[in-house]
Amino acid sequence: MNVIKSAALLVAATALAASSTVAATATAADGPDGTRVTGLQQKADRVLADSPTPRRVTADAVEYEGLTVTDAPRTKGAQDLACDYGHLCMIVNGTKFDFYKCQTWNLTNWTGNGPFTNNQTPGTVAKFFNKDGSVRWTSTAYQAGTATWDPIWSLRPC
Does the global pTM surpass 0.85? Predict the structure, then answer.
């Protein structure tokens, strides 16, 4: 990992540990390929264990193959969490995750509580896993509510 990215991730992790959020445009550094790494991407990298390479990064979103990460809107609960049909959405530590690809996603540092909406096709079961790979809980579409994210180590939207 490049020294600049390591330093940027350390700064982002420190800010989050202090219960602050890093705005998408507040922090930027050069990535290993010369592209700009935004604070939002740093937040996404911090909780996606495999750190997949984003397809597109803008000031408002980081898009991966099958996942879009944005700063979380101010919501009162799951009823206010916008989630397109066919998607599984949640807010974790001030970041919105919008999953739309059926695969297992490895996670890290998912803590606290937050709203979720399983707006996939009716009957689709999303699974949330413990560190040992056992199922912690499931959500059958359509379902919305508040979840406890700690400890969630991986998820499979479908």
Answer: no
